[in-house]
Amino acid sequence: MTAVSRRRFLVLSASATALAASAVGGLGWLRGSAPNVDGLRVLSDQQYRTFAAIARTHIPQGGAFAEGAVDFDLARMFDGYLADQPSADQRDAGMAIHLVEFGPLLFDHGAVTFSNLTPEQQLAHWSGWGTAGKQMRREVFWSFSRFLGLTFYDHEAVWPHLNYAGPSFARLSSRPAGNP
Question: In the predicted model, is pLDDT for residue 167 greater than 70?
């Protein structure tokens, strides 16, 4: 076994650090900048942009309903939801969002991030997560899918499309007294 001199070790360490920094910088360059979003409590501007793209892809305007995720700002609702969650859950959600953002690079071997794909490419990529061979991708898809569905269908504007009159307690409490 050959001993490495202190000088050689420092040169190798500095080179490895520079290489790692340039790789991270390169990923940041690929991701691009995100517009500033006021009032976020947990998500960064980048994470908000990615989750908004996931939401738009999952529940598009003019899909099954005229309304879509963008009409109710489900990404901001996710930020609000996360604000009340333990820090470990916030961290995991952030990591899941980053995984989706860099998913095209990791799983499709492309040179573009999720937020920078066209809407058609986003749909194709995101749809693959629900049936992916890797359990982690399926778990991210179904976790985000559940949140998006629960919050979207909770909006009163969507209820008429479902022939849903609203929560039964609200209907019962609005009836005149003595009228069953």
Answer: yes
Q: Which residues of 85-109 are buried (b: 16+ CB within 10 A; e: fewer)?
A: eeeeebeebbebbbbbbbbbbebee
CA 30 to chain centroid: 18
Q: Exposure of 175 by Cβ count < 10 A (0-12 exposed, 13-18 middle, 19+ buried)?
A: exposed
The model scores a pTM over 0.90? no
Q: In whole angstroms, give the CA distance from residue 9 to residue 61.
A: 57
Distance CA 40, CA 42 (A): 6
- For the ranges 7-11, 87-91, 156-160, the one whose mean pLDDT is highest: 87-91
Could you say which DSSP state residue 37 is in?
A: -
What the block records as the tokens of 11 is 């040169």
170, burial (CB in 10 Å: exposed 0-12, middle 13-18, buried 19+)? exposed
**Alpha-carbon dihedral sign for residues 75, 80, 85, 86:** positive
CA angle 13, 19, 25 (to 5 degrees): 135
CA 5, chain centre distance (Å): 47
- For residue 149, give both structure tokens: 């569905």
Distance, CA of 48 to CA of 74 (rounded, Å): 10
| Cα 180 to Cα 169: distance, rounded to the nearest angstrom | 13
